[in-house]
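User: Can you predict the 3D structure for this chain?
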Amino acid sequence: MTFGLLDNFEEMRKLDSQNQLDMVAGLAQQVREAYGAGRDVIEDGSCEVGGIAVAGMGGSAIGGDIVASAHEASIPSPMVTVRGYHLPRWITSRSLVFAVSYSGNTEETISCLKEALERGCRIVCISSGGMISDIAAGEELPLIRIPAGLQPRAACGYLSIPIAACLESLGLAGDVEADVEETAGVLSLLAELYDPGTPLASNPAKQMAANLVDKVPVIYGSEVTAVAARRWKTQINENSKMMAFANEFPELDHNEIVGWQHPAALIEKFRMIYLKDEYLHDQNKKRMEITADLLKDFVTETLQWHTSGRSRLARLFSGISMGDYVSLYLAFLNGLDPSPVARIEELKNQLA
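Assistant: Here is the predicted structure, written as structure tokens:
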């Protein structure tokens, strides 16, 4: 297969009906704007809570995972992302609940929001409109209104950073502002490196995509890169219209490592991708090396990528940026527009 398409900006643009390349390139600015929106909605002040829940689905849910992973060292309360219709029973009137839905009409999130209201929780809503915005207005709840007109998965900054900014305002997270500034700087540099105008020969995102055509990516992360690995998987699913899988160290060494043997004909199609990070626990670094060695006779190729930045937030978002670009370039190599998700829309229509 020829990969010349990746150096043909006009041909890629023809496939990119909703300008997702521009959205990914704008993630640095999105992160900055999102921080301001989150800080504006809640006045500074200390707050003690008995648990934090982020209710959301799909692209609206991963924001909770990002914040929990990036700020786990400073958040003094258990924090959980709820992907479903019901809040855990331990979420009570002492708890803080974020209801996050890009469209504002996600039925699972609305169900959780209603439970939070019934339990008397402290609630913050994040949405571009829809029923959640209406409920927030009717119940006089804080609402962070984010820009409409994007694919939810392209609004990652808007759906995550406001959560961290609110926690900072409430004294429940550390210096988020400094991390946001570093993250925006890192993302700006990576956007130049992964840009469509950067040739395949010097563009790591294009090179990674070229290695994954007609293959099944299996993305492995650990600690801060575990969330990035999950994001890679879902972006490749939705943008590239491909199967992909993700897992994390050390858990995968207790089960999945044994599965890399059969069916042999299918495993030949798989490509293992390590999302590596300088600050991983030494044992997890060692696990990655040993695992790759143990599987070298079964895995056709193992690809590697390294985070950029100092803070956990910057390193995590550097992984998200790379995965987003890879998924778009894969879509173009598959001859597809990355934006439509027809099966998801049809499912929602049949559920309605």
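The beta strands are 52-55, 79-82, 96-101, 122-127, 143-145, 216-222, 245-249, 270-276, 302-306. Residues 221 and 229 are 5 Å apart (CA to CA).
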